[in-house]
Specification:
Layout lengths: L1 H15 L5 E3 L7 E3 L4 E3 L11 E3 L4 E3 L4 E3 L4 E2 L6 E3 L4 E2 L6 E3 L4 E2 L6 E3 L4 E2 L5 E3 L4 E3 L4 E3 L10 E3 L3 E3 L4 E3 L2 E3 L4 E2 L5 E2 L20 H46 L1
Parallel strand pairs: 1-3, 2-4, 3-5, 4-6, 5-7, 6-8, 7-9, 8-10, 9-11, 10-12, 11-13, 12-14, 13-15, 14-16, 15-17, 16-18, 17-19, 18-20, 19-21, 20-22
Protein name: Trimeric autotransporter adhesin YadA-like head domain-containing protein
Keywords: Signal
Pfam family, one: YadA_head
């Protein structure tokens, strides 16, 4: 009985509460808008806003299948964009996702930003972590910042993993790592452990391989030195014997 009363009370409360939400334009069927100033509407000259969702004060969902949840959350442009979080903004052309307070995805297509103040601004760019930034197509930044430490930052197709890591075309792994050249991999002066010995010319060599190679080189050098020394002594002895024989012959004469 109490459960039925609570459901009835909540239903009446929701129905009677003025939310000042707005649905604008034709093609807004099956849309949902809840909150003061919440808005679901068509893009000017673009697709309709069917199935749009705007929940939160001043939440704004424009075009089909867009979802904006949070105060002043914004999901604009063609379709399938998602903005969740106060001030989150997903304004890329297609399938942009922004999750987190003030998260922003402005990628033309497929950009994803997850984390407070994260930003994805390239096609299929991925930024995960507070303050993470992925600028440029196919860039990936994973690692949230804190206090005065910035999040990961990647551009021009680079990959940055770790707080305050930076990758411009290259790959930066670990907090504070920097990769600013094409095809560069930087691990921030860290050791790489657990490697298997390299077998091809482009493989990395382990310290064990280097030590074995040094030992073999020293042995070969020692053998060469010993052989050269023996040859030199033999040649010197032969030369001395020849000189003695010549001197003896001269004396006998």
């Amino acid at each position: 009985m109490i459960k039925k009363f609570n459901i009835a009370f909540l239903t009446a409360l929701i129905i009677s509460t003025p939310v000042l939400a707005t649905t604008v334009g034709s093609g807004t069927e099956k849309s949902i808008n809840i909150g003061n100033g919440a808005l679901v509407t068509n893009m000017p000259g673009g697709s309709d806003a069917a199935n749009g969702v705007a929940i939160g004060n001043n939440a704004d969902a424009r075009a089909g299948n867009n979802i904006a949840i949070g105060n002043s959350a914004t999901a604009h442009n063609n379709y399938d964009s998602v903005a969740i979080g106060n001030g989150a903004s997903a304004t890329g052309a297609f399938s942009s996702i922004a999750i987190g307070r003030a998260a922003s995805s402005t990628s033309p297509s497929g950009g994803i930003a997850v984390g407070d103040s994260s930003n994805a601004s390239g096609n299929y760019a991925l930024a995960i972590g507070n303050g993470a930034s992925a600028a440029g197509d196919n860039s990936t930044a994973i690692g949230g910042g804190f206090s005065t430490i910035p999040g990961a930052s990647a551009s021009s197709g680079g990959t940055a993993i770790g707080a305050n890591s930076v990758a411009d075309k290259g790959i930066a792994i670990g907090s504070g790592s920097r990769a600013t050249r094409a095809d560069q991999v930087d691990i921030g002066s860290r050791q790489i452990t657990g490697l298997k010995d390299g077998t091809r010319v482009t493989d990395a060599a382990t310290v064990g391989q280097m030590n074995a190679a040094d030992t073999a080189t020293l042995k070969n050098a020692q053998a060469y030195t010993d052989t050269a020394k023996a040859d030199a002594i033999m040649q010197a002895n032969q030369h001395s014997d020849a000189n003695l024989a010549t001197a003896k012959g001269y004396t006998d004469t």
